[in-house]
Structure formats: structure tokens, C-alpha cells
Amino acid sequence: MPRAARKVIIAGAPASGKGTQCELIKSQLGLVHLSTGDMLRAAVQAGTKVGLAAKEYMDGGKLVPDEVIIDLVRERLAQPDCEANGWLLDGFPRTAVQAAALRAAQIEPDLVLYLNVPDSMLIERVVGRRLDPETGRIYHLTFDPPPSDVVPRMTHRSDDTAEKAQVRLSQFHEHLGAILAAYQSVTVEIDGTRGKQDVFASISRVLEGSAIAA
Ligand code: AP5
What we know:
This protein has a five-stranded parallel β-sheet, with helices on both faces. A two-stranded antiparallel sheet has the order 5-6. It is about 50% helix and about 15% strand. By secondary structure, the chain is α/β, with parallel strands linked by helices.
């Protein structure tokens, strides 16, 4: 019997490594990667209604209102590629209201990976992050330096300052308990303080184990 497509949520503080691990998980499992941060940044760039509503919140490091993001995610998860290949939801849900909206739509993950990294490590990760706009690859000036041909085109997110990261972190802590409570029975905590390949090795073991159990 074919195995059901995986439905995975990855949760964690700003710069805990969600996007980095999603790149690795996606290449292993072929899941559709949906990052609400990327979706919102694309909407801001395109000047859509959602983008206009989200911009001022994102610029301040604050969560965008639930009603701005919930429909966007529900509609995207209903697309045929998500149904066929499974999905990897990165950065959603982030509030109790968002988790309740998924549940009401009968969208349930079979696994929630919670990347646990203490705040003391996160600011350095935030300020050193750089992105390659051509490939979407995430780098870090110290921990994962880009090759020299990528350096001239690297970009730096406008919310990746120490000051805005503090706002993002406090919002994260305000809502974390509600998210963990909503998915208690399917959540696995991963120690995200190690190097990215070690973190990925742990995630792979969990994915293999829960795939066998599924
Ligand atoms: P979003 O883009 O989701 O930002 P975030 O949650 O703050 O997460 P990040 O993208 O900053 O970090 P990450 O965990 O993906 O880390 P990464 O792998 O890049 O959201 C942005 C904004 O959009 C929000 O502030 C909000 O306004 C809005 N938004 C989005 N979703 C929303 C929602 N559901 N509701 C309301 N508003 C929403 O890694 C970070 C750095 O560390 C990189 O440089 C990387 O190279 C490095 N690194 C990664 N892993 C390691 C490691 N193991 N060791 C050392 N360095 C590492």
C-alpha cells in the first residue's frame, strides 16, 4: 500500500534554523516547502493586498494579523502539489488562533518538529544571516560562509537586526506554549544548537522512525 504523503510542521524561534533544515528535508523527502515568511515577503515585493497589509508589521518584527495569513496558508495547502507530495510548513501556525484555524479546516500534521535553540545563540545567527536571491540558499557569515562568487549578490533581510530580533523573540515566546499544547501528541523536540548537519541527522532519524510508524 502506498505510504500517505507526509504533513510536517517545523517550529522554532527566529533564526533557530527552520529554513536551513527545510532545504535539507525537502531534498530528502520531496515535500512542498511552504514558508509563511517567504510567502509574505513575496507578497510585499509584489505589492499585493496581503503584502500591503503585512509590510508594516514585518518591518517592525511583529507578527502579521491572523486574518492576513490564515487564508493564504489554507488556500496553498489545498493545491494539488501539496495533496500529492505532502508538505513542510515553516513558520505557521504561530498563534493559538492560527492552530485552531488549521484544525477547523481538518488540516492536521503527522509530525511537528520543534527546533529548540536558546535566545543567547539566536541574535548572532540573525545578524550574520545572508541570502542568495538567485537560489534562495541561506548562508551565515561565520557559521556557513557563502562562496566568493555569491558574495557580491548576497542580501540581508531588513528585519535581521539585533533590535528587531528582540521583538521577534518576545512574540515567539508569547505564543510558543499554545503551539506546543495544540500539537503535544505529535511534537518532537530537536536540539538545534549543534551544527546544521548534526541537527539534520537527528531530524532524519525522527522522519524515518515516524514514517515507519505511520
Ligand atoms: P520568517 O521569515 O518565518 O522569520 P522567523 O520565524 O523569524 O524565522 P527566520 O526565517 O528568521 O529563521 P529560520 O528559523 O528559518 O532560520 P535560518 O534557517 O534562516 O517570518 C518573518 C516575518 O513574517 C515575521 O516576523 C512576521 O512578521 C511574518 N510572519 C511569518 N509567518 C507568520 C505567521 N504565521 N503569523 C504572523 N506573521 C508571520 O537560519 C538563521 C541563520 O542561522 C542563517 O544564517 C543560517 O545559516 C544559520 N544557521 C542555521 N542553522 C544553524 C546551525 N545549526 N548552526 C549555526 N548556524 C545556523
